Amino acid sequence: MSHMFEAKRREYTQGGLRRRDLADSPHAQFERWFAEAEAAGLSDPTAMVLATADAQGQPSQRIVLLKHLDVQGFVFYTNQSSRKGRELAANPRASLLFPWHQLDRQVKVSGAIERVEKAMAASYFASRPRESQLAAWASEQSQVIGSREALMEAFREAETRFANTEIPLPDNWGGFRLLPRDVEFWQGGAHRLHDCFRYRKDEDHWVIERLAP
User: Fold this and answer.
1) pLDDT tens track for 162-194
2) 173 belongs to an annotated ligand binding site
3) Is position 162 within any domain?
4) Quick one: which H or E segment has residue 133?
5) Largest CB tally within 10 Å, which of 77, 92, 176, 208?
């Protein structure tokens, strides 16, 4: 069975983006757009597509959640033995994409990856709901399992193991910080004449460039 999608299109008419509208740094511009995404009622404005590649260059993608942002970079947390964790260990570079479709906007961030300090990861882990903490212990993320019941049994074992006690940070669980080198802000435009600006790190300052759509 095949499907044809040529006729599925729409115009992007929610406004343009001009150089004069941009903040001096991508951090400030992202915070501005993020606040507008929240004000618009987007259900998951922190959801971002994380693209990694293994040692052979094979890319893979998945959605993760932004949990911290500062002038250093974008932080997310995961099981570091998962596929993304292994790929980031082998090739510590990644790309993030925030697909804010309702606003006809995208933000793409590319750069190097570093591990988050263990104390910071432990503090965030302690703030998670208890069931999410138990799930981190129960799930060997990205590994083949026999059934849903096997996963639930591992969850019940974690419940028993940590009954009436605080749940510690698993050894293989932590955070990654993407250190941006390029940040692109894309605003959809009519007739596919979109507006896209790239912040490019040049030593200790940011160069802002308009890119053709």
Assistant:
1) 998 999 999 999 999 999 999 999 999 878 789
2) no
3) no
4) helix 130-138
5) 176
pTM: 0.90
Contact 185, 32 (CB under 8 A): no
Q: What is the CA radius of gyration of the chain?
A: 20
Annotated catalytic residues are 192
128 marked ligand binding residue:
yes
pLDDT in tens, 30-67: 999 999 999 999 999 999 999 999 988 999 999 999 99
Contact predicate 196/18, CB 8 Å? no
Q: CA–CA separation, 64 vs 49, rounded Å?
A: 6
Both tokens of 107, joined, read 């933000």
Instruction: Tell whether 9 is covered by a domain.
Output: no
194 annotated as ligand-binding: yes
Q: What is the CATH number of the domain that holds 93?
A: 2.30.110.10
144 domain residue, yes or no: no
| Count of Cβ atoms closer than 10 Å to residue 59 Cβ | 11
- Domain of residue 62 covers 19-128+172-211
